[in-house]
Design brief:
- The chain contains seven helices and eleven strands.
- The chain is α/β, with parallel strands linked by helices and 201 residues long.
- The strands form three sheets. A seven-stranded mixed β-sheet has the order 5-4-1-6-8-7-9, sandwiched between helices. A two-stranded antiparallel sheet has the order 2-3. The chain has a two-stranded antiparallel ribbon with strand order 10-11.
- Helix 3 crosses helix 5.
């Protein structure tokens, strides 16, 4: 598959007091790097979707792109990359979930190729992980129509286009999101082994 990847760093991090979450140090390196380093070897081009501190993100060598339509949330970042990329597929991951498996793309590809849906996303057994998703570029027109109508909710858009979820409930801990300072401290404070590298939960 001709596939690009994007790490979504464009949020306001209101639950962290507006701190740039992707650049927060976690185990001595910026949080977004965990996602970027996992995706980079598996995609044609890795993009960083960010709306602040662009220079700091660019220091790491990947193309950094702000939303071309402001105030659209994560769909704005996805839309911007879909417009710019030449690949036929886009894999998205959030910047605040450092424990996911590098091979997540395999499960998503298998599901997307077995269905007529324009996108697939992860369900961890407890909640929808909408930002772990694989999109066909052909969804661009439908997404543009949705955003131009003033809509922003990810779940609502997925229902409109009949997105298909991929069951990854066997390993829900892999999708632990760091959304608050308390969750960051919790993640720093308790360790569990995932594969070869020691990660925290």
């Amino acid at each position: 598959m001709d596939i690009d990847g994007v790490v979504l760093c464009g949020g306001k991090a209101t639950r962290m007091g507006g701190i740039e979450k992707g650049l927060l140090l976690f185990k001595e390196k910026p949080l977004f790097l965990y996602s970027a380093e996992k995706l980079s070897p598996r995609v044609k081009t890795l993009w960083i979707s960010a709306n602040r501190f662009l220079g700091k993100y660019r220091c790491y060598g990947w193309p950094v792109v702000p939303d071309c339509i402001k105030g659209c949330g994560p769909l704005g970042g996805i839309y911007t990359i879909l417009k710019q990329m030449s690949s036929s597929f886009l894999l998205s991951v959030p910047c605040d979930c450092p424990f996911f498996e590098e091979t997540i793309d395999i499960r998503l590809k298998e599901k997307l190729l077995s269905t007529s849906a324009p996108l697939v996303y992860v369900w961890d057994g407890k909640r929808e992980q909408y930002l772990f998703a694989l999109f066909k570029k052909t969804i661009l027109a439908e997404l543009e129509k949705y955003l131009m109508a003033g809509e922003r909710k990810v779940g609502s858009f997925y229902r409109i286009v009949q997105a298909v979820r991929v069951d990854m409930s066997a390993c829900p801990e892999r999708f632990y999101n760091i959304n608050t300072v308390a969750e960051l401290e919790e993640a720093e404070g308790s360790a569990q082994v995932f594969g070869k590298e020691k990660k925290v939960l």
